[in-house]
Amino acid sequence: MLDRRGINWRNYFMEKELVFGHQKPDTDAITAAMAYSYFQNQLGYETEAVALGEPNAETQFALKKFGMQAPRVIKTAANEVDKVMLVDHNEPQQSVSDIDKLTVTHLVDHHRIANFNTAQPLWANLRPYGCVSTILTEMFQEKHIDIPANLAGMMLSAIISDTLLLNSPTTTDHDREAVEHLAKIAGVDDYEKYGVEMLKAGADVDAKSDADIVDGDAKTFELGGTKLRIGQVNAVELDDVFKRQADLEKKMRELMDANGYQVFILIATNILNSDSELLVIGDDTAKVEQAFNHKLDDHHRMNLPGVVSRKKQVVPPLTKVFEG
Question: What keywords were assigned to this record (predicted)?
Answer without folding.
Answer: Hydrolase, Manganese, Metal-binding
